[in-house]
Amino acid sequence: MTQDKHLELGLFLRKKRASLTPEEVGLPPGSRRRVEGLRREEVAELAGLSSDWYVRLEQGRPVRPSAEVLLALSNALQLNRKEREYLYTLGAQRLPDETPDSFKVSPGMQQFLDLQNPYPAYISDHEWNIMAWNRAARSVFGDYSAMSKLQRNSIWRAFMDPYMQMLLDNWEGHSKLRVSQLRMAHSQLPENPERTELIHQLRTHSEKFANWWNEQTIAGTPEGKKLIHHPLAGDIRLNYLSFQSEELPNATITIHLASDTESKQRLERLQEQSKS
Questions:
Q1: What would the DSSP string read from start to end of 202-242?
Q2: Low-confidence ranges of the chain (pLDDT < 70)
Q3: Beta bridge partners of 225
Q4: How many H-runs (helices) and E-runs (strands) does the chain carry?
Q5: Exposure pattern of 70-92 as b/e (b: 16+ CB <10 Å)?
Q6: Domain architecture of the chain: domains with CATH
Q7: What per-residue confidence (pLDDT) applies to 217?
Q8: How far is residue 88's CA from residue 256's CA, in Å, rounded to a whole number?
Q9: Is there a contact between 159 and 171 (Cβ–Cβ < 8 Å)?
Q10: Rounded CA gap, 223 and 242, in Å?
Q11: What Rg do the C-alpha atoms of the chain give, in angstroms?
Q12: Which of 164, 147, 146 is CA-nearest to residue 155?
């Protein structure tokens, strides 16, 4: 690292520290705070570093942080994907590859999901595991927080969760589409152990999945529309869109919108019921 990089790294850390409030990182607000944002010792504690060593980083001293230290600072300062890339560049380290176990939704991304209420919104990883959601998604599709990782897998749920089979008007078309998507992904990367185990479990426990998997050519329902039969709210018609964010490579954000006024009102009622 050059001296300029050390100074730039220190400046970046100071700016990010000043942009956060204690409440945002789970600390008490305190009183008589003489600095804007967090204190240096608070960032050091959040990152598991000594205060003296962190101060040297902010001052642009010639110390080189490890990749593990940069990861700890990224989490402590709640950096998004682009900010993490910038931090690792300044620190002359390689940004670790995203894996299912390291998948982390930032507070800003969670806030984005929450702002979609009363419309269901969630984030899934590249293996169709639901990783984050808002209150509306939980009210419509089930309580993800009470599910295991396998139970939050959309393909597993399509075949193994009776609630989804009751909820989706065109369950068969939806499920055939999931099989097609899984087959395509598996053909491109057959050595993926998590996916291989999922396929094995589904072929073992679901006769329909096994039959459709063996057919190899499967036509499913196009993405974009859903009619659901909610046990409390009644029929809800949804249009939905999916897109990716630079902050979460290999992840998909899905937002469901009401396709008519009556569906919108039913989603709003569900939202109110979930608050009580």
A1: HHHH-HHHHHHHHH-----PPTTEEEEEETTTEEEEEEEEE
A2: 1, 30-35, 97-103, 217-223, 276
A3: 239
A4: 13, 5
A5: bbbbbbbbbbbbebbebbbebbe
A6: 3-96 (1.10.260.40), 107-275 (3.30.450.180)
A7: 66
A8: 35
A9: no
A10: 9
A11: 23
A12: 164
Instruction: For 44-102, give the DSSP string.
Output: HHHHT--HHHHHHHHTT-S----HHHHHHHHHHTT--HHHHHHHHHHTT-PPPPP-GGG
This model's pTM is above 0.70: no
Token output for 31? 């009183």
Give whole-number Cα distances, 134 to 93, 119, 236, 253, in Å: 34, 9, 18, 12
Q: What are 10-63's pLDDT values in tens digits?
A: 999 999 999 988 888 888 776 666 667 899 999 999 999 999 999 999 999 988
Amino acid identity of 28? P
123 conformational bin, left if phi > 0, alpha if psi -120 to 50, beta if neither? beta
CB atoms within 10 A of CB 176: 20
- The rounded distance, in Å, linking the Cα atoms of 32 and 2 is 37
> Is residue 226 within 8 Å of residue 240, measured between CB atoms?
yes
Amino acid at 214: N
Residues 6+ apart with CB under 8 A from 200: none
Q: What type of residue is 168?
A: L
Beta bridge partners of 185: none
Taking the C-alpha atoms of residue 268 and residue 226, their distance in angstroms, rounded to an integer, is 17
With a pLDDT cut of 70, the percent of the chain lying above it is 92
Torsion on CA atoms 161, 167, 171, 176, rounded to nearest 10: -50
Q: 3-class SS at 147?
A: coil
